[in-house]
Design goal:
Layout (H helix, E strand, L loop, with lengths): L1 E4 L3 E4 L6 E5 L8 E6 L6 E6 L6 E5 L14 H6 L8 E8 L9 E2 L5 E4 L4 E4 L11 E2 L4
Parallel strand pairs: 3-10
Antiparallel strand pairs: 1-2, 3-4, 4-5, 5-6, 6-7, 7-8, 7-9, 8-11, 9-10
Length: 141
């Protein structure tokens, strides 16, 4: 499947790699997203909306950056995403990387993106009462 994006131009993806966001990303109506690898920096990926060319988010795993990030996925999210085992789950977080000051990058630890790799359902989950923030410093030092 080919589609146009603002950031990457026209891309060709396997439709089986599309995740359907059953729990939408806050503030966005898009339901279908695909993960795009960043070849020059493999610790990041881009989450690109399939139906809205200008919507994409840099995502990463905060543990790579030294964050002690452990959480329990709410039962309601497990039910909506039809999660049966931990092995079928991937979790990423949206990063905010300023062009002029990458060292000031932040990451949203309050609302991780959860991907069920078995059925391609996904969603953004709010971790209430977790103590996490939407703007944690990405780089610990």
């Amino acid at each position: 499947m080919k589609f146009k994006t603002t950031r990457f131009g026209e891309i060709d993806i396997d439709e089986e790699l599309i995740f359907n966001f059953e729990l939408p990303i806050l503030g966005y109506e898009d339901k279908r997203y695909v993960m795009i690898d960043v070849t020059e920096n493999p610790i990041f990926k881009w989450l690109q909306a399939v139906d809205t060319p200008e919507v994409s988010f840099p995502i990463t795993n905060p543990v790579i950056f030294g964050h002690d990030y452990v959480f329990e996925l709410p039962t309601q999210a497990q039910d909506v995403l039809d999660i049966k085992t931990a092995e079928e789950v991937l979790a990423f977080n949206i990063a905010c990387i300023p062009d002029k000051a990458p060292k000031d990058s932040t990451i949203n630890l309050l609302a991780p993106l959860i991907f069920n790799t078995k059925n391609h359902k996904a969603g953004q989950v709010i971790l209430t009462d977790s103590g996490f923030s939407t703007r944690e410093k990405l780089f610990k030092n």
